[in-house]
Amino acid sequence: MKHLRSLTAILLSFVVSLSSCEKKIDIPLPQGAEQLVLNALMNKDSIIYVRLTKLNPGLSVNFKEEQAKEVRLYENGVFKETLFKEERNGRLFYRSTINAVEGFSYKIEAEMAEGKLEGEDIIPGSVSVRPGKLSHETDNEGNEQTKLQFSLTDQANTRNYYRFRVFQLHTSNNDPLLNSFSVDGKTELGSDLTLNTEYTAFFTDDELFDAQDMSYTLSLNYTTVDSAIVEITALSEASYKYLKSSYNAVENAGNPFVEPSSIFSNIQNGLGIVGGLCVKRIVIK
């Protein structure tokens, strides 16, 4: 495992389930050698997509698309198949013909002109989630809020990692819009968690509530809606470290009062992530 010490301003491109998303902040970076980047976030019960790029920290356009001689997929240590090329939204991917299976480990090897990239991770299990109620409140300053409640049951005897996000349905085209929120949490044992900070993604693990039922209230401040989508994603340790460090790097980019943060990587001979996750979305109304 390694960390990217100098790439304060970059969120590495990543793939989630059947869609791709790239985010880049054009801030001058330290000069350095070009490095190959392999990204594959593997969602339970979904096709695996791999994206290959090359990073040049000295350029304003930081990622250049790369092609591999061959990209191979291994399942539980056994060769499964060679991934084939597919273009999606003008970008080149390498995709599997099989779905990622809960509890299985997957290794991806990419034969490049410069050498071999590889990374490996396991697919976490599903999250047991129960939707709660939606309510509208007014804070002490008279601002309207929407409260979204849900609870999850944490799996016992293993470290679990989670990411929460909230989406609203856009009325004009029904595309979900990512919404910022603050978090209140309360366990059945009575310990309280109240966070006034607003997030577009909230990351947590079960160190303090292993095997408990955890209830959460997500507050959409200055917003009144009649329904919203809450996304609860179970993450492997590698995916948790990568996504959380990427999120923090983007949130803190350009802030002179925050020390530059590192972005986690688990790719041998390159940068990026091969990580497992399991996405679950619930509608609260």
UniProtKB/TrEMBL annotation:
InterPro entries from the UniProt entry: DUF4249
UniProt-listed PROSITE patterns: PROKAR_LIPOPROTEIN
Protein name listed in UniProt: DUF4249 domain-containing protein
